[in-house]
Write a structure and sequence with these properties.
11-stranded mixed sheet; single chain; Aminopeptidase; alpha+beta; 194 residues; binds coenzyme A
């Protein structure tokens, strides 16, 4: 586990950024994270944070912010293999980005994403995520993928037109030269494939 304190306030106000693998999260932390994600994404059917979304968010590294021990923001990075124009790229795929509603607008989401950024830049050939909130990520250096998206399944590659325009990427020092208008694909998974 990695962590740092970023201020010298009283303990109950201290903001702590941590990086933890899923198996380092305590059961209480998992409960707190899931409650945070459910409240941040809300109850609308399209946006609701469902079990599949949690499954997509685990198995990699979690970026967790707490204030005085209360978890207030989160993102996770899991490894996936995206293909660009058929070329496989070891990708840090970002999931479950959220700040507790009562703590939004204070820079915590951007702070988490800066930590994610540093990790993806160090460890992957590409960063990627799917979102409807382009503005939040683009201001941090993420780029909209403009090519057609698809999913690789056991029975072949299927287009995912609903996701076209929703995929953002982060180039890293080990990214090969990439044409952002080329076709991009992900491996299949249950729930939202992107
Ligand atoms: C998106 C989210 C994580 C931002 O967290 P946050 O802690 O409020 O973010 P910050 O305080 O660092 O916001 C920084 C900036 O991003 C902007 N921003 C926040 N949400 C945004 C969005 N959905 N689209 C565009 N810009 C957004 C803010 O207005 C702010 O701009 P400013 O610096 O010019 O004032 C948070 O709003 C959230 O949890 N939303 C619900 C879940 C969600 O949509 N997750 C991401 C979808 S993949």
């Amino acid at each position: 586990m990695w962590f740092c304190w970023i201020d010298m306030k009283p303990a109950e106000e201290q903001i702590r950024f941590r990086r933890l693998r899923t198996d380092e999260l305590t059961p209480d932390e998992v409960r707190a994270l899931r409650a945070l994600l459910e409240s941040a994404f809300g109850s609308d059917d399209e946006e609701r944070f469902a079990e599949d979304d949690w499954q997509h968010a685990i198995g990699g590294l979690h970026f967790v912010v707490d204030i005085g021990g209360e978890i207030v923001a989160h993102a996770s990075v899991v490894e996936r293999e995206l293909h660009v124009d058929g070329r496989p790229l070891r990708t840090g795929y970002v999931e479950a980005v959220a700040t507790a509603p009562e703590h939004q607008g204070k820079g915590l989401g951007s702070g988490v994403m800066r930590e994610v950024h540093a990790y993806v830049q160090d460890c992957f050939e590409l960063g990627a995520l799917a979102t409807g909130s382009h503005g939040f990520y683009e201001r941090l250096g993420w780029l909209s993928w403009r090519g057609a998206s698809s999913v690789r399944t056991a029975t072949g590659t299927r287009p995912t037109p609903d996701e076209d325009g929703c995929i953002l990427v982060l180039l890293t020092p080990s990214s090969p030269p990439l044409d952002l208008t080329a076709p991009i694909s992900c491996e299949w998974r249950p729930g939202d494939v992107w």
